[in-house]
């Protein structure tokens, strides 16, 4: 029975599952069957997810979690004004989640992104929806530290699609917005450092490569690199092959900063770019069976990237050195044509909407699908 | 003039490093003007990522290593020579940036370093005139040794007019014997190598042919002159700014507070024209090159020997090679001396692009900016990589949630919704969501292209659908109108109203008829034939009476036997006719209608009891420039009827 092509109705899934379970070494759908995936259920769908930067001592009254435990901030995605951010710690020893309700807070509009301050102190969490907000996750409670509002005299602030916290210059946060601009904030002064009109259309994602260099992707289908030392110029390092196909996500490899990856709308490919050779992608990773929703580079290895999509799979890829070297050899060229295979795969039960790889704990990857968040051990 | 000592130097370096099996050896030369130590020569003996050879023939290891150093040198020059306008040919065996290991990259970077006396390891060695041995170089503060990536052990030995630096990627404890050993290599060569740095530069620059042509146009080169070790990115940033802004003529006077360059620069300018430099001109392709190279040397000679770190390793995608220059020539001693010019080139390169008035300018200046960006990132990359090998592996725990990939896997979740629905909702619907859910703040800015396009599409569909609906309605109203006998007005409301009345009348009539039918059947049963006739007559009378009634009701003209009714709406006409029968009536009517420009589309006629009834629907066309109207048509019809 061919299992690929069409989407069978849910009733037919069971037969498929059984067949596949015989084939594969690990279980497929249900996370309880996979002993190394740990699930946390929430009452609402989750989109934004962030790992805390480094082992954080949780001095909360409700748990005595070890100091070196991964901590997650989870933002809800509800089509309402009132949304919520939950802070959850994961006890690695007990392999259980310890939600921290004292630190959870209400959030206006669903946050499109959450991110912790790159260093553990101060314990700041930034969130973006209609504007950028900084929250202080104090020992007892979470409080709103500042609202970085982009509004000018009109009072209207264009909603933010994403932001990135500069790990080399933690005073800087770059935000991307649907009004085609990227804004660089100085969070210590709570003031705008600079604002650039980055693209012709809405900007969907932004990522820092260096203290003064960032890249952004947009609905106009281009990846552009900006250097704050020279704001007049930007360089297009990639454009989607079909014109005006929006590029939705961008990730810059923080280990080897020559590489970045991006995903397109309705595309199952992850495009890996080398900034040294613009316009020609280093690799196109095309083993997903449905559109890719999220990508994350490995925080400790220079050539590994994880991607997740609507096919419910999270794939870890290793970019071969040949591909990394620019594809000069023949083997690399053929690999570029057919696409390389991932090395690791995990199958969740539903479309995976979010993927984050913990920088502090290299062996944990977090994914979000429907109302669940799972921590996967790599 | 100038003997080629650097070949000897290079050989010495090579010999030294190979004899001790270390990773690299460099010689830092003193630049007389600045009094700083700058790159003299180097030999890289370390790990190589890839080997590219021109010939397929295997070369000996020694030669290969020599080639390697040369290749690195070439790479540096090509990178540093700015975005040449002439895309020059590079030998296919030349290195490209990706081929280098990190250590090699770093070695390359060293070319651009400089140390004032006392600063940095070589600086200290020189100042003290004593060797300095640093064992755990990768662990020390960057102030002491900023280039830790390259080596774990670094030794700086002051020799002659400079400092010999040896580095090794392993940790080696101090060994004076090694130092002596190293020194021995150089005594032979250094006797020759006594020329001041200035005269070394008198060799013409061979490699930047295109750039030379530009040099004579060039305004005084404004260079950031960093007298300090370039250890921080901040300085690099400044240097970048300056390099980029050079054309604006305000860069140097700008924020150079930490460098105090103003005075020294003017000093240099003064020196520029006072220097008498003997030229060494190897064969160059164009005369202009010579001229340009002279000028360049004049400028070069006093200008920065102290390259800022930002000057190096940029324009990674530049393929550059001087015209007519073979690789062999480049390996010449002249070439090896010309590294000084590189620094100038680097700084100039970006500027020069901007000075070009051609269409290439934009392209190259943008590339110049971009390449600076990339180079700063690369540099940064290297600074962060202590041990490259640790980054190659992804450790998979034994109890991993992930399983190995196999090609047979084809299980996917059937996505119920549309593709990327949540992601799209997050990104694409933010504006709507905020508008809907917020305080009613209206959004003005931003790009509405996507939304508008969709809306237009949708509305176009709506328009068409609406039009079709209207047409259908109109048609049906027309039909209804034609069915209902005595509609007076043409508007839809009255049509409907009259239809209602008509239906009620019909119903009453049906009732009457049915009732009469029953009466008559019962009467007939008990009546005679006479009665039948009577009844028949009655019936007939009744019927005709009804008919008459009907006729009266129908006829708007009041005449009992003839009624003509015309109704028109836009281009459609409806004609209802009742009149006594006669031969050829219909034909005449049809002809008349045709003459009047009415095209009959449907016709119903009947002849009952000598009464001709007809109902015609026709479309009106323009005949003789005008259309018929109701009155005219009625007159015509009446005419026909009365004609007979």
UniProtKB/TrEMBL annotation, chain A:
Annotated Low complexity bias: 16-31
Coiled coil: none
Region annotation Disordered: where it falls in the sequence: 1-35
WD repeat ranges per the UniProt record: 196-236, 285-319
UniProt keyword list: Repeat, WD repeat
Domain of life: Eukaryota
Positions with biased composition (Polar residues): 1-15
Annotated PANTHER family: WD REPEAT CONTAINING PROTEIN
Protein name: WD domain, G-beta repeat
Automatic annotation (TrEMBL), chain B:
Residues annotated as domain BHLH: 457-506
Main location: nucleus
Compartments (UniProt record): Nucleus
GO cellular component: nucleus
PROSITE patterns, per the entry: BHLH
Acidic residues compositional bias, start-end: 246-261
Ranges for region Disordered: 230-273
One example GO MF annotation: protein dimerization activity
InterPro entries, A to Z: bHLH-TF_ACT-like_plant (IPR054502), bHLH_dom (IPR011598), HLH_DNA-bd_sf (IPR036638), MYC/MYB_N (IPR025610)
Keyword Transmembrane helix appears in the UniProt entry: no
Stretches of the chain forming a coiled coil according to its record: 496-523
Keywords assigned: Activator, Coiled coil, Nucleus, Transcription, Transcription regulation
Similarity annotation: Belongs to the bHLH protein family.
Protein name, as recorded: BHLH domain-containing protein
Organism listed in the record: Musa troglodytarum
Lineage: Eukaryota, Viridiplantae, Streptophyta, Embryophyta, Tracheophyta
